[in-house]
UniProtKB/TrEMBL annotation:
Keywords: Hydrolase, Iron, Manganese, Metal-binding, mRNA processing, Nucleus, Zinc. This is DBR1 enzyme. One of its GO terms (molecular function) is RNA lariat debranching enzyme activity. Residues 486-506 have a biased composition (Basic and acidic residues). The lineage of its organism: Eukaryota, Metazoa, Chordata, Craniata, Vertebrata. It is found in: Nucleus. Signal peptide: none annotated. Pfam families: DBR1 (PF05011), Metallophos (PF00149). Residues 396-406, 432-443 have a biased composition (Acidic residues). The gene is Dbr1.
Length: 539
């Protein structure tokens, strides 16, 4: 079957689907499935816009709301993961995945599904070491910290995915697996994106958590986005024994969805011709969710996953054949995911804008039904309970304080959440600062013309095969050390946490191709997406 893969969508659904229709008209290429590697932006209304980690002037409604309302329907089954520019309040309603609109399915924080016998997995968000060991504690309305931490990858999702034993055909992540750039045309990558040099040479570009999953899952295909450049790699995995068959992963990073950009790729995937056309649950994944349900955490406290270190009575949560069989029996061997999409928020009405609409914490009926069916914890319900318990404790403590105060005392407490996100910094700390050189060019390793006049050829994207040595394997736990933290805070091309990086020019750290150091103007990774002529005043 034909599978179309898209990079950062940024809410431009009409453009994405129009491109697919153009391919069909001109070349008779009709994809059976569309995959999107994050920054999907399932924005339903003005409240959702306030939950995107971008300055107010970059918040645009785009076209998803038309698919949410039913005005339009996706012409092809669409499966996507979350990135770092999302309506986090909407996606948070579906931690285990679900329909965000008819024919558009979100994989959740992490998930695995099947379509025509093809096994598709993914993990949402981007890696940040300081949030990696926390639970999913965020809920709307977000403050300036939680609006970003809400989309940071957590160790529990990586742990769940590492329990999988059966082969994965396709896997998606938003940010790249760390070290993957060593298996493609790295020289050309650095020529086109010279601001990556410091991170590539120090092996800090990308996600160590994704790299860990790549080593464990060894999928046939791995697709990513985030860095807004097309890049291909082919990695031959080492075998653990002579009996084990060699495995290889074809990696492809896609560009952002903009006119004249190579944001879409169509590939042929072997499938089960006897399988139905419906999206299906994956029995092993459901069994893993059931096995790891006791590990669900909704606190900000850092914690480690169970491992074989003498401190845990149990560390293997992989699904047994008996557990998988039980899941199949529970479903009467009917794995079809129900089409149970329901509206959970008001839809944007261009004729009646509501700029003051505030986000609320919503429990989605899809999640309620899914958790009840498989005996899982509804994460949002748990968060809601924790908030109520915290409020009760706060009220009791407040009453005790009032009894000890005199008549002039005050027990007023500040609100836990800042509902006004309009004053966010003009620089998102989860975006890499990029300079202008070669920012809009693609890599020669990906010699694919994206125009509808030239249908894409995936086989042309891979030029060589390399094996990852053990010394290069990266653990997400290794990335928690202070060295990585310093790189995150100090690197010019790294994700910047300080407000000192504004529009001023910075010195190039590594020098240019001629070896001299000069002053280059920098720009944010998504400047082409989020553009505005004038600076808005802070509200």
């Amino acid at each position: 079957m034909k599978v179309a893969v898209a990079g950062c969508c940024h809410g431009a659904l009409d453009k994405m689907y129009e491109t697919l229709e153009l391919l069909q008209r001109r070349h008779n290429v009709r994809p059976d499935l569309l995959l999107c590697c994050g920054d999907f932006q399932a924005v339903r209304n003005e409240a959702d816009l306030r939950c995107m980690a971008v300055p107010a002037k970059y918040r645009h409604m785009q076209t998803f709301y038309r698919y949410y309302s039913g005005e339009k329907k996706a012409p092809v089954l669409t499966v996507f993961i979350g990135g770092n520019h999302e309506a986090s309040n909407h996606l948070q309603e579906l931690p285990y995945g679900g329909w965000v609109a008819p024919n558009i399915y979100y994989l959740g924080y992490a998930g695995v599904v099947r379509f025509r016998g093809v096994r598709i997995g993914g993990i949402s968000g981007i890696f940040k070491s300081h949030d990696y060991r926390k639970g999913h504690f965020e809920c709307p309305p977000y403050n300036q910290q939680t609006i970003r931490s809400a989309y940071h990858v957590r160790n529990i999702e990586v742990f769940k995915l590492k329990q999988l034993k059966r082969p994965i055909d396709i896997f998606m992540s938003h940010d790249w697996p760390r070290s993957i750039y060593h298996y493609g045309n790295k020289k050309q990558l650095l020529k086109m994106k010279s601001f990556f040099r410091q991170e590539v040479e120090s092996n800090t570009l990308g996600s160590p958590a994704a790299s860990e999953l790549l080593q464990h899952l060894k999928p046939t295909y791995w697709f990513s986005a985030h860095l807004h450049v097309k890049f291909a790699a082919f990695m031959q995995h080492e075998t653990n024994s002579k009996e084990e068959l060699p495995k290889a992963t074809k990696f492809l990073a896609l560009d952002k969805c903009l006119p004249h950009r190579d944001f879409l790729q169509v590939i042929d995937i072997e499938h089960d011709p006897n399988a139905g056309d419906s999206l299906e649950y994956d029995a092993e994944w459901i069994a893993v969710l059931k096995a790891t349900n006791s590990l669900v955490n909704v606190t900000q406290s850092s914690w480690n996953m169970p491992e074989n270190n003498g401190l845990h009575a149990k560390w293997d949560y992989s699904a047994t054949e008996e557990a998988i069989k039980e899941v199949l029996e529970e479903l009467n061997h009917d794995l079809k995911i129900p089409c149970n999409f329901t509206l959970t928020a008001a839809c944007y009405d261009p004729s009646k804008p509501q700029k003051t609409m505030e986000p609320v914490h919503t429990i989605n009926p899809q999640t309620t039904e899914f958790c009840a069916q498989f005996g899982l914890t509804d994460i949002n319900d748990r968060i809601h309970q924790a908030k109520e318990e915290g409020s009760v404790r706060g009220e009791n403590e407040e009453e005790e304080e009032e009894e000890e105060m005199d008549s002039t005392g005050s027990a007023e407490e500040p609100s836990e959440y800042n509902t006004d996100n309009s004053g966010l910094s003009s620089i998102n700390p989860d975006e890499i600062m990029l300079d202008d050189e070669g920012g809009d060019e693609d890599l020669s390793t990906c010699s694919v013309d994206p125009s509808p006049d030239h249908p894409p050829d995936f086989s042309a994207s891979f030029s060589d095969i390399r094996i990852m040595p053990d010394s290069m394997a990266v653990s997400s736990d290794d990335a928690m050390d202070s060295t990585n933290e310093e790189l995150e805070k100090s690197g010019v091309s790294k994700q910047v946490e300080e407000k000192s990086l504004t529009e001023r020019p910075l010195k190039r750290i590594g020098g240019n191709e001629n070896g001299d150091s000069g002053i280059k103007k920098i720009k944010r990774r998504n400047q082409a997406i989020y553009t505005a002529k004038d600076e808005d005043k802070t509200e």
